[in-house]
Amino acid sequence: MESNVSIGLLGLGVVGSGVIKLIENHQKELAHKLGCAVQVKSVLVRNPDKARDVNLNRTLLTTNPDDILNDPEIDIIVEVMGGIEESYKHILKAFAAKKHVVTANKDLVALHGIELQETATENKCDFYYEASVAGGIPILRGIAEGLSSDRIQKVMGIVNGTTNYILTKMSKEGVSYTDALNEAQELGFAEADPTADVEGLDAARKMAILGRLSFSTNVSLDDVEVKGISHVDLEDIHYGDKLGYNMKLIGFAQCEDEQVEVHVQPTLLAKSHPLAQVKDEYNAVYVYGEAVGETMFYGPGAGSMPTATAVVSDIVSITKNIRLNVNGAQAVPLRFERKLKSPEEQYSDFYMRLHVKDEAGVFSTISSLFHEHDISFKRILQTPMKKLDLAEIIFVTHETTLGSFRKAMEELYRLDVVLDIKSHYKVEGDVDDELAGTAETL
Ligand code: HSE
To answer: 336 - beta bridge partners?
Structure first.
């Protein structure tokens, strides 16, 4: 039997408690796999007197991070306290003390992950962060190891459970965004302050990490264009459904000729796309590799025990590296300086809903404008709104560039006959005709 591996845990919230429980519940399996026991030696907490539902000797608790970071017997620091500044400082200190680090902190990894990885490698330490993206889904390992022989071209993710729950609820039950959000908060999916989730920032952090790893390039959080779901209207969900699409908050990362685009936005996703059927609070990441083609990884993106599985699996990897004396050797340096695609290089189909004057020649004026930008329509719906004396036009374009679509939209605003552009969305995937409902096809 090898000597035990000792863990210093920074934080004992939802994830930290899950880590303690998982290590305790699975100790036989872990000992069999590692040839030693995994032992939590010390835990940093803010309030040692707080009641907790974990079986833990109170003498292991400390309020002083240095008790853990300076303890020569601790091999691995597990950072599950969240926040950025303090966690960042503790992790740098851990590397300086030649301790390996596991973190579940996507905010920190999205902002400082590249630098922290370099510091870890310089100190011959491991730095693992599987739990930072999509909780219980082993997507970072899936990409870094399972698909390491392939050239990844595209990654699309439903990587935020709160927004997926809200959009599923709006689509299935026709409830408003506000009602769906309130219910998500009552059920504990959404935070009391849901801004980072609903405005797409949480997903953007995860997509920055996924983009970096998938394309071996230094994608930063600022490179991710973000739009959240707080303005998604039930009407667009309804029209999207009629046209054969489900509304999803999609994180999208693509690399072509070493140029990348990464964004997060509500997207109308063809119902035939594998991600379109991912419902409620579940997460999924779709990865398209040049050789493998389509793959999809599905599971719980949050929660105490699912996230703990990712954290403890990282502990297992580090412990194996300790046995082999290869810590710090697993990280592959980034290969490319990132080059971002311009809007003229980003291709997609687009959806738009607009209100126009209900009079002769309006549609031909609009279609001429789009024709000037070389944009053609794939599907069109038109509904007179007699009470308001206007017509509502909904269309999906054939593939065009974001640049052309934006220019056409700017010019639309200047037309007298256009009263308002109510909404516009990116569209992904091809609709099977039988799923397109009663939509007219031009
Ligand atoms: N708040 C996140 C979600 C989970 O709703 O998916 C943690 O990243």
So the answer is: 217
What tens digit of pLDDT does each residue of 11-64 get?
Answer: 999 999 999 999 999 999 999 999 999 999 999 999 999 989 898 999 999 999
First to last CA, the chain: 71
pLDDT in tens, 284-337: 999 999 999 999 999 999 999 999 999 999 999 999 999 999 999 988 889 999
Residue nearest to atom 4 of ligand 1 (CA): 302
Ligand 1 atom, smallest distance to 160 CA: 6
Confirm whether 227 is a catalytic residue: no
Name the CATH superfamily for 343-435.
ACT domain (3.30.70.260)
Q: Pick 5-136+304-324's CATH classification: 3.40.50.300, 1.20.1250.20, 3.40.50.720, 3.40.50.20.
A: 3.40.50.720
Alpha-helical (H) ranges within 57-134 are 65-69, 85-96, 106-122
Ligand 1 centroid from CA 301, angstroms: 7
- Name which of 261, 301, 290 is nearest 136 in CA terms: 301
Domain ranges across the chain: 5-136+304-324, 139-300, 343-435
Q: Which helix (H) or strand (E) holds 240?
A: helix 234-243
Q: How many CB atoms lie within 10 A of CB 74?
A: 23
List CB contacts of 115: < 8 A, sequence separation 6 or more.
none
CATH number of 139-300: 3.30.360.10
- 180/165 Cα distance (integer angstroms): 8
From the list 106, 154, 169, 206, the catalytic residue is 206
Q: Which residues pair with 355 in a beta bridge?
A: 392, 420
The tokens for 340 are 């971002």
Separation of alpha carbons 138 and 235, rounded Å:
36
Give the chain's count of helices (H) and strands (E): 14, 19
**Euclidean distance between CA atoms 438 and 442, whole angstroms:** 13
Question: CA distances (Å), 404 to each of 97, 285, 294, 339, 346, in order?
Answer: 53, 29, 29, 21, 10
Distance between CA 125 and CA 96 in Å, rounded? 9
Ligand 1, pocket residues at CB < 6 Å: 160-162, 197, 202, 301-302
Which of 109, 166, 197, 283 is the pocket-test mutation for ligand 1 (most atoms within 8 Å of CB)? 197
